[in-house]
Amino acid sequence: MTYKVLLKPLEILFKQEIETVVVLDNYPVHHAITLKEACKYLNMALIHLFKYSPKLNPIEQVWRTMKKELSTEFIVNEEFLIENFEDYFTKM
């Protein structure tokens, strides 16, 4: 069974809704044909940011801040990294 068969019943429901606009960076998977086709069924429009435009992508600002904060820490293990990441992220 393909994803198209699974999405077909939802198509009628989503076409009745206001179109959702999703802004994406240029990560290769964001240009996948499967994603584009699924978005048509789900009444979603995709807008891709310009290449190399980190100032337009808010998550890049989050990562920049997180890297700055965590780069001063000695990362003992994955658990330590996750805990510190969560602490800094919730303070932002």
UniProtKB/TrEMBL annotation:
InterPro entries in the cross-refs: RNaseH_sf, Tc1-like_DDE_dom
The Tc1-like transposase DDE domain, residue ranges: 7-74
Protein name stated in the entry: Tc1-like transposase DDE domain-containing protein
A Pfam family for this UniProt protein?
DDE_3
> What's an example of a GO molecular-function annotation for this chain?
nucleic acid binding
